[in-house]
Design goal:
It is an enzyme of class 3 (hydrolase). By secondary structure, the chain is of the alpha+beta class. The chain has one domain (9-174): FomD-like (FomD barrel-like fold), CATH 2.40.380.10. The protein contains 3 helices and 11 strands, in the order βββββββββββααα. Strands 1-2-3-6-7-8-10 form a 7-stranded mixed beta barrel. It is globular, with a radius of gyration of 15 Å. The two termini are 27 Å apart.
Length: 175
């Protein structure tokens, strides 16, 4: 698998199960890029929605993508601590155009005290029926919710206390 080079600036694209483009993040600077894991950073970037709307992120963020797990994690650096937004979706792929994954609606928001909330179960139920998610995909996603909750409670991977801080320092060097 191809992967982006450290220091390169890439686009991140999320799609829906039906193949339609869902959301595009314009700029993410690659801080670590291997075939198995990508860490990127961005700050106040423009995000394009499939319905034509666009908005700007409010704070610096460190993004963690893995080729083995059905999730990605965005650590948002705010004045009152680090908030995490976990998207449940396919492992990433990368081509010369962008880093890409399929977003499967379910999200977990993690607060600075490491409490969390599962989001968008209603959207998942709706899209599961509309787009006819295979049973296998649904099984993987619910198993991934359990896996993410375990990572959060163990402060593993991107939830490890110094992870976001370490990569944010690297991000500041590449700006």
């Amino acid at each position: 698998m191809k992967f982006p080079q450290i220091g390169s600036n890439i686009e991140v694209q999320s799609y829906k199960h039906n193949g339609h483009l869902h959301r595009v993040w314009e700029e993410t600077i690659i801080l670590k890029g291997t075939s198995q894991e990508i860490v990127g950073g961005n700050d106040r970037i423009i995000v394009h929605e499939s319905d034509g709307r666009q908005w700007r992120t409010r704070e610096p963020a460190i993004c963690y993508f893995t080729a083995k797990h059905w999730f990605n994690v965005i650590g948002m650096i705010r004045n009152d601590g680090i908030y995490y937004y976990c998207n449940l979706g396919t492992p990433f792929t990368y081509d010369d155009e962008a880093l890409k994954y399929i977003d499967y609606d379910l999200d977990i928001k993690v607060f600075p005290d490491m409490t969390y909330k599962l989001l968008d179960e209603d959207e998942f139920a709706l899209h599961k029926n509309q787009m006819k998610y295979p049973e296998e995909v649904e099984h993987i996603l619910w198993k991934t919710v359990d896996e993410l909750v375990s990572w959060i409670s163990q402060q593993k991977g991107p939830f490890e206390p110094a992870f976001i801080e370490y990569w944010y320092e690297r991000f500041l060097q590449h700006r």
